[in-house]
Every structure is written in structure tokens, then in C-alpha cells.
Amino acid sequence: MKASSPLSMFRWIVVRDLTLEWRRRTDVLSTLFFFVIVVSLFPLGIGPDMALLRTIAPGVVWVAALLASMLALSRLFTSDFHDGTLEQLLLTPQPLYLIVLGKVLALWLLSGLPLALIAPVLGLQFGLSPNTLLVLVVSLLIGTPVLGLIGSIGAALTLGLRSGGILISLLILPLYVPVLIFGAGAIDASIAGLSPQANLSLLGALLAITLVFAPWATSAALRISLE
Amino acid sequence: MTTILEVANLRCVRGERQLFSDLNFSLSPGNALQLTGPNGSGKTSLLRIVCGLLAPTEGEIRWQGSNIRSLAEEYSQSLSYIGHRNGVKEELNATENLRIANGLAGISLAPTAVKAALEKIGLGGREKLPARLLSEGQQRRLALGRLLTARTKLWVLDEILTSLDRSAVALIQTLIGEHLQNGGMAIIATHQELDLSAGSLQRLELAT
Predict the structure, then answer these.
(1) Quick one: which of A71, A13, A65, A21 has its CA closest to A39?
(2) pLDDT-based confidence at residue B197 (cuts at 50, 70, 90)
(3) A40 occurs within a structural domain
(4) Edge-to-edge, what's the strand order for the sheet holding B185-189?
(5) In chain B, what residues touch A89 (CB-CB under 8 Å)?
(6) Is position A3 within any domain?
(7) How far apart are CA B105 and CA B148, in angstroms?
(8) Please, which residues have CB within 8 angstroms of residue B143's CB and are 6 or more apart in sequence?
């Protein structure tokens, strides 16, 4: 028997989840479409008042990103829980921390990342300048992994509950507030011609903290949910 | 013979109900334990405690002398568990299921080894079919494939014989027999008679 290394295990879990997500790609696309539609509804509803659109753009894009990532969250552990593979994952000879991290990474690659990449196209509808569009993408690239990491705690806690989806929102949305404030703040600053660096640095700090603590909390929550 | 797995003074309370208390048994290489008892008597809970998925209310499980709580991942490496749910991903085909399950357990399987294992469990020719299209019994067989390739010391099998045809039941008994002969151990919860070719079988009946 070959001894397992944490790295190969991490690779396996990412490959596994990416394959699974790809086989159910309608779910992946629906999250993305949700984001696109919600963001596009605002310019249609408000009309061509560019000054107003520019003012609300940061908030609208970030709130839509929060809601879209909530949609993706319910997929994180549910199917593994129902077919018994989650039990098997808990019994693998590697720390659960890595499994959670791998799963969140895979989910982000197919939900957060495409969302950040499509955001500039949507930003054009709000009359954002190229410079601001860049800040928008960067803030989403740093912020969406934080959403996934925090959200994984909620997903693990509500596992197996009947109305898990709604409960996740109640548990997690308040915790998303700092990400929303700093994410939207970075774009706001850029629109006002200021440097977005302070807000982006704070987002980065949030990412660093959640990278360390969230998988750990999620692991504990998973063990409780499966008892 | 040396005792590898030791269950000492185990007590389990689920909700308000005490399922069992003061439960003791031990297993040494080549030994198997058959667990019987009425529905709701705590068979699954006991198996999950042995796996470390569930914490006992009292008592401890020792593996080669140390508590499994402190061994954690080291213990998982010597254990295979098949529960009520097969742990088979419906979107993946049989080959992918087996390769990924083994990859996560830290074993990289050659394509020939996967093929051989699938042949042995009677899924030859269905390698590329998504598991969603396999029957209940075939999914169960696929779960068995994990036991074949993982080569762990302790097998914990929960109601393994349900939804299986006669040839599969015979296959499982052969597999367990071979496993015991190679110095493995097994804990099996089932009401059907087990007829093992090798090793010694203890019985434990849980009462309500």
C-alpha cells in the first residue's frame, strides 16, 4: 500500500468535485445566470440615468454576488451527505480540514470565479470606467472565496435539516456583511477617484483569516452533523 | 493471539434512550464478529462508534492498545466501512467511483487493478456506465469493490447482505473468508447466517 500524502489527497478531492460539478453543469450555469439576470434588472428598471446607476453599481453587484453564492452553497455537502460519500470522506486517512478546503476550492472555481470574470461585462451597463471594472473584478476575486469559506460553515451546520436552505441564509448572510462593505467600498472608492487599496487589503485580510479558521469550523460542524 | 481491536465498557445513549451499556468484546487477526439484534437495538450506532463517526457516551475503543480518538487518521487508514448508504456517486461510472474512493484513501490504482476488481465483483462490462443506471444490488457490489482494493485490516459492514442476490451473498462470504485468512478482521451486522470458509466467527446479540 502506498502511503498517502496530504497533497495528493487534496488533488483528488478537487478533481472529484470538479468532475461532479461538471456532470451537473446546469446547476453551475443557473448560479451564473441568476447573477447576470439580477444585476441586469437594475439598469432596465431604473432607466438610463448614468449618474444614479454608477452610484448603486457597487452595492447591486455585490448583493447579487452574495445571493448567487448562497445558491451555490446548498450544493456543497448535500449530495455527498445523502449518498453516504460524506461518511467515507470523514473516514479518509487525511485531516478533514483538507477535504473541506478542497471542496470549497472546487465550488469556487465553478461558481465564484466565473462570476468574477463575467462581472466586467455587467459593469458596462452601469457606466463604470475601465479602471473601476478592474477593481470590481479584483474585489470579487478576493471576496468570493471568503463567501464560500464562511458559507461552508453554514452548509455544514444545516446539513440534513428539512429547511436547510433558508436556515443557511439566516445564519450566513449576517456574516457576509463585512465582505459586502469592503467589497462594495473598494468599487465606491474607485468611482470616486480614490485608491481602493485600503478596502482591498481588508478583504485580503478577511480571506487570510477565513482560510485558516473556516475549514476548521466546518470540519467540526460536519462531525456534529453526522453523529 | 494478540488482540488488535478492543471495545471496553461501551455505553451508548441516543436521545433519551439507552441503546446498550457495559458492552465488551475484542477482535484479533482472523476473527470476525457477527452483530444481531432487533431493529433499533443499536447495531448501526455500535458500528459507527467503532468507526469513530459517533462518540460513545461512555467507554472506549482501543486499536493496538491506544484509544481511537487519539489515533484519529492513523486509525482510519486501517479501516473500511460500508454503511446503509453505499457511498457511490451516481454521476460517476464504476471505474471513476473506485479510482476516486481509493485516491482519497491514499491508494493510486492502476487501470488493470480497477478492471480486475470490477470483474471480481461482477461488474465487468459495466465499467463505463454511470452508477445512476446500476441497480441497487449492483451499487452495493460497487461498494464492495472498495473493500477489495483498499486492503484495510478491519472491515465494518452494516447490513451488507440486503438487496443482494444469492451469488453476491456467496461472493461476500468468500471475500470475508479470504480477508480473515490474510489476518484481517471484520464486524458484520446482519440477520442472515454467515458461512465463512476461514477464520472464527463470534456472535454478539444486542437486546432492546
Answers:
(1) A65
(2) confident
(3) yes
(4) B79-82, B154-158, B185-189, B31-36, B200-205
(5) 104
(6) no
(7) 13
(8) B82, B86, B87, B88
Find chain A residues with C-beta within 8 A of B89's C-beta: 20, 83, 85
Nearest to A140, CA basis, from A34, A14, A35, A13: A35
For residue A20, list chain B residues with Cβ-Cβ distance below 8 A. 89, 91-92
Under a CB-based contact definition with an 8 Å cutoff, are residues B89 and B131 in contact?
Answer: yes
pTM comes to 0.90
Q: How far is B207 from chain A, CA to nearest CA, in Å?
A: 22
Domain B1-78+152-208 in this protein, CATH class: alpha beta
Counting every residue written for chain A, the total comes to 227
β-pair type (B79-82, B154-158) = parallel
- A137 located within any domain: yes
3-state secondary structure of A221: helix
Contact B73 A5 (CB under 8 A): no
- Characterize the bridge pairing of strands B79-82 and B31-36: unpaired
**Do the chains contact at A84 and B84, CB–CB below 8 Å?**
yes
Q: Which of A85, A86, A90, A97 to mutate to probe the B interface, most B CBs <10 Å? A: A85
Domain presence at residue A185: yes
- Tens-digit pLDDT profile for residues A30-54: 999 999 999 999 999 998 889 999 9
Q: Mutate which of B44, B78, B104, B153 to test chain A, going by most A C-beta atoms within 10 A?
A: B104
What ipTM was assigned to the predicted interfaces of this complex?
0.87
Whether residues A4 and B105 touch (CB distance < 8 A) is answered with yes
- Domain definitions of chain B by residue range: 1-78+152-208, 87-151
Burial per residue of A176-206, b for 16 or more beta-carbon CB atoms within 10 angstroms, e otherwise: bebbbebbbbbbbbbbeeeebeebbebbeeb
Enclosing domain of residue A200 = 8-226
